[in-house]
Design a protein that fits this description.
The complex is a heterodimer of chains A (about 400) and B (about 180).
Chain A (H helix, E strand, L loop, with lengths): L6 H15 L4 H38 L15 H11 L10 H16 L6 E3 L2 E2 L6 H22 L3 H32 L4 H6 L5 H4 L1 H15 L10 H4 L9 H26 L13 H25 L5 H30 L4 H43 L1
Helix pairs in contact in A: 1-2, 2-3, 2-11, 2-12, 3-11, 4-5, 4-11, 5-6, 6-9, 6-13, 9-11, 11-12, 13-14
Chain B lengths: L2 H22 L3 H21 L3 H26 L14 H20 L17 H10 L5 H22 L10
The chains are: A mainly alpha (about 400), B mainly alpha (about 180).
């Protein structure tokens, strides 16, 4: 077994040999190696996060027909580092009426809720933090901690705008968690396991072909969970200035900002893992684990780009429309889809691959068509009711 | 002392301390946040017991839903964030007696339980706790009846909530 085939295990074994040779007990050495692994993963993610600032600014500039950062270094690549230096040396202001402990814990929790997600991301067949058999539920649990951090930030700032922003964001997050959990169950049904590694291994056919509607609902719920446009009314700069993070300055604001970017990238990654085969790409992942990581990062960036595309193209939705959209349309649709998927999966699992894929795909299309028809007839009736009322009022 | 015992003692101490802070802190939102810490400690205890599913459900349901609703309710009903209520109300002695009795009862019950002194056997190889749990919940030999009764109860509660919130006069909710 060489380093290029299974780098994680080889490195761990080598480190264990070094530490035990120094006279360290094996248990302590193993704990230390675990800590080192976490530290390295988080450091790589934070460096990637710095790059994401540049990517986000360049992409938004293209969408808005601008150039974006272009003064520092080639293509403005040094700009994010200058931003970080600015954030670091900024004065750290705590509002007078703030609840200091809660105020300081909130940005850390926000960043943490994103970073702990990477524990269950299968980067390559052999590179995986921990193979939890409840991987998809773990994603929801991490989201719960993110919700908590936002409400803590909004409350402890002692600011009306921050509190209203936090209320809105939490209302969105706890309601869009429902369709998200429902769509997370679709890969679970198809793979027969809740573990992320097993879900990737089960995708000989990408699940987006078996559950295209599920992939779409997951993307919508993920964008809402991220609080990005068109669901960004927690920030709503025209109404709330900046929402829950209004009172934060310097690196504390930087943690919210970096956490949000990394969160978007992470959900792009989860979209790829759950519906687009994760690190698998026509046998490329068997060549080298490093190639598998590259494939996963590439797919994650495509998902991230799609989230940015939606963000910079669509307008903000009003909060009652958004909650009505979730509870009256997305949630029933997601639950119907689970039932249809489970039924079709049970009916077709013994048949040939072509029949299975076609059947699953067509059942999804049928559910989507039915949902759109129901929504259309409802909106037609609503429109007629309002117009009828107007005619009656005009007659009086 | 093994590593697992040390972790357990630390987690248990933190959980108990957070629980104590829930009932002694004067600020209601702080009490709710300490409650979150206590619930998180219980989740970690589940992890130590290798009950991963219960641990994650504990975080999703209790921290992600119930504690957030507590905080919402407190924020929407109190005027000032520096709200300092009295630490005790006049039922404090009753609560204390109840707590002591519960602890005593549990202590008495667990004294007689043989599992207290035995070491648990480890899982057999290839044992998947979560599929065992899933099978037990839907198999007629397992817990299908309690599971379904609980589901019906929850649906009844949902229907009741919708009925209470529904305003029949204009056929719309509240508007």
């Amino acid at each position: 077994m060489s380093f290029w085939n299974d780098p994680l295990k080889v490195a761990a074994d080598w480190l264990l040999g070094v530490f035990t040779a120094w006279g360290m007990p094996e248990l302590a050495a193993n704990i230390l190696i675990g800590f080192l692994g976490v530290l390295i993963l988080i450091s790589i993610l934070m460096v990637l996060d710095i790059g994401l600032v540049w990517v986000e600014r360049k992409v938004v500039a293209r969408f808005q027909d601008r150039i974006g950062p272009n003064r520092l270094g080639p293509f403005g690549l040094i700009q994010p580092f200058a931003d970080i230096i600015k954030l670091m040396i900024k004065e750290d202001i705590t509002p007078a009426g703030a609840d200091k402990v809660v105020y300081n814990i909130a940005p850390m929790l926000s960043m943490m809720s994103v970073l702990i997600l990477w524990a269950v991301v299968p980067l390559a067949p052999t590179i995986l933090g921990v193979d939890l058999n409840i991987g998809v539920l773990y994603i929801i649990a991490a989201g719960a901690i993110g919700t908590l951090s936002i409400i803590m930030a909004g409350w402890s700032s002692n600011n009306k705008y921050a509190l209203i922003g936090a209320f809105r964001q939490v209302a969105v997050m706890i309601s869009f968690e429902v369709p998200m959990l429902a769509t997370l169950l679709i890969p679970t049904i198809l793979a027969g396991s809740m573990g992320t590694a097993a879900i990737v291994e089960g995708q000989d056919i990408w699940y987006v072909l078996l559950a295209p509607l599920g992939a779409l609902i997951f993307l919508v719920a993920a964008i809402a969970e991220l609080g990005r446009a068109p669901f960004d009314l927690a920030e709503g700069e025209s109404e709330l200035v900046s929402g829950y993070n209004i009172e934060y300055s310097g690196m504390k604001f930087g943690m919210f900002y970096a956490g949000e970017l990394l969160h978007a990238f992470t959900f792009g990654g989860f979209w790829a893992i759950l519906f687009f085969g994760g690190y698998r790409f026509f046998g490329l992942e068997k060549v080298s684990p490093f190639l598998a990581i590259a494939v996963l990062l590439f797919k994650a960036f495509i998902g991230y780009w799609l989230i940015m595309w939606v963000r910079y193209t669509l307008l903000r939705i009003r909060i009652d429309h958004m909650l009505a959209f979730n509870w009256k349309f997305l949630t029933p649709l997601a639950f119907t889809l689970i039932m249809v998927t489970a039924l079709m999966n049970a009916l077709l699992s013994g048949t040939s691959t072509w029949l299975y894929v076609t059947g699953m795909f067509l059942s999804n299309v049928l559910v989507a068509w039915g949902a759109l028809e129901i929504a259309r007839s409802y909106s037609r009736r609503e429109r007629e009711r309002i117009e009828g009322k107007r005619i009656v009022e005009a007659g009086h | 002392m093994t590593g697992e015992q040390i972790v357990f003692l630390v987690v248990a101490f933190v959980t108990l301390f957070a629980g104590l802070m829930v009932v002694t802190t004067r600020n209601l939102v702080h009490a709710a946040l300490w409650l979150v810490a206590a619930l998180f400690g219980v989740a970690v205890t589940y992890v130590i017991l290798h009950a991963n599913f219960l641990a994650v459900v504990q975080v999703v349901v209790y921290i992600g839903a119930i504690a957030i609703l507590f905080i919402f309710a407190v924020m929407l009903t109190r005027r000032d964030m520096r709200d300092q209520g009295p630490q005790m109300n006049k039922n404090w002695w009753f609560g204390a007696v109840l707590a002591v009795l519960t602890f005593g009862g549990l202590y008495f019950l667990l004294q007689g339980w043989e599992g207290m002194t035995k070491t648990a056997t480890s899982y057999p190889v290839g044992f998947d706790a979560i599929s065992e749990l899933g099978n037990a919940l839907v198999s007629p030999a397992g817990y299908v009846l309690p599971f379904e009764v609980a589901s019906v109860l929850l649906v009844a509660a949902l229907v009741g909530a919708v009925y209470v919130a529904f305003n029949p006069r204009n056929g719309n909710s509240g508007k």
